């Protein structure tokens, strides 16, 4: 058994010539992280505010949640279902954003890293 094969089998990781810590500091990688953060953080903040507002109103203002909206549906039920709708909407929005902006940049970085690993 060759020495490199032993190294691979002993710890399950194939040795690489790439300095991943240094690669994290490249402009392209930093741009990818910045684009992701710029999208995720505001949406996460919005969702948590929306979620906790719903919980607090439900806990401390049950009369507000009991306001009839139409038929047997009250405001609490509509807002509760709105939680599901916003969760799916945010997920679809993120997937769309990622497909357009993040995935192409990630594929470019992956190709660059794969090229560096073959050298």
Automatic annotation (TrEMBL):
Q: Which InterPro entries does the UniProt entry name for this protein? A: DUF485
Signal peptide boundaries: none
Say yes or no: keyword Kinase present: no
Keywords for the protein's UniProt record, in alphabetical order? Membrane, Transmembrane, Transmembrane helix
| A UniProt-annotated Pfam family | DUF485
The answer to whether the entry has keyword Transmembrane helix is: yes
Locate the transmembrane regions by residue number: 39-61, 73-95
List the PANTHER family hit by this protein, alphabetically.
INTEGRAL MEMBRANE PROTEIN-RELATED, MEMBRANE PROTEIN
Task: State the name under which the record lists this protein.
Answer: DUF485 domain-containing protein
Q: Which species? A: Cryobacterium breve
């Amino acid at each position: 058994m060759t020495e490199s094969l032993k190294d691979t089998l002993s710890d399950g990781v194939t040795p690489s010539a790439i300095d991943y810590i240094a690669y994290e500091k490249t402009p392209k990688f930093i741009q990818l992280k910045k684009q992701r953060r710029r999208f995720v953080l505001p949406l996460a903040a919005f969702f948590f505010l929306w979620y906790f507002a719903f919980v607090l109103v439900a806990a401390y203002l049950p009369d507000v949640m009991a306001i009839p909206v139409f038929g047997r549906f009250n405001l609490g039920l509509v807002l509760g279902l709105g939680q599901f709708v916003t969760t799916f909407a945010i997920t679809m929005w993120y997937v769309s954003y990622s497909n357009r902006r993040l995935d192409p940049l990630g594929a470019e970085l992956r190709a660059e890293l794969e090229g560096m690993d073959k050298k």
